[in-house]
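ok trying this again, last paste got cut off
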Amino acid sequence: MADAKNIYDLWIAMVGPAAALGGVWLTSHLGARRQAKERQEERRREAVGQQVLLAAKLDRFALACLDVAGDSGDFSDASSAYAVPQIQTPTFDPESTGTDWRHIESWIVHRVQSIPIEQSFYERGIADVAQEDHERDQGATFFARQMSYAGLGLEASRLAQALRRSAGIEELHVAPGTSSLVQRLQWWVDHFAKENAQFEAARTDSAQAAALLTNSQPAPSSKTPAA
C-alpha cells in the first residue's frame, strides 16, 4: 500500500503542474479567440458604417442629378438673351467623403472614383453642344445636360444600392404609387434615349430626302446656245 501511495503522490506531483499549465494555456487560448472575434466584429461594424455613409452621400448626389434631369431652362433672367439653368450643377468629390476605402469592394471603389471623371467628360460634351446652339431656348444644350445628368445620377444611385447590399442593409420600401430614386432616374434615361433616337431618325430621313432631291435634279446642259 505504501508503494501504491508513493506512486500516486508521484503521479500527482508530475501531472499537477502539467494540468495547471494546460489550464493556463486553455484560458489564454480562449481569451485570444474571444479577442479575435471582437476585433472581427468591430471591423465588420466599421465596414458597414463606411458603406452606409458612402451610400447616403451617393444618393444625395443622385437626387441632385435628378433635379438637373428635369431642368429645361428658365427665361426669367432679363440680363440673359438665352434660357439659363434653374438648378445648379452638383459635384461629387470621393476624397472629401472621408471614406476608408479599405472597407469598400474594389469594383465599387473604381466606379465611385470615376464619377468626377465621367462628369468632366459630360460637361465637355455639353459645352461643345452649347457652342453650336444659337436658339433662345438653348434646347439642344439643355437636352444634352438633362440626358447626361440623368445617366450620371442613375450610376450613382445604383452604386449606393450595391453598397447597401454589401452591408446587408435592405432597401427602403416606397409608398404605393410612387417610384424609388433609381426608378425615377431610369425613367428619365429611357425618356431621353427615346427622344434622342427619334431626333436621329428624323435627321437621317431629312439627309436622305435632301440627297434624293439633289440626285433628281437634271444635270446642266453642256450645249452652247445657238447664236
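PB: full thing came through this time. Residues 2-172+180-210 form one domain.
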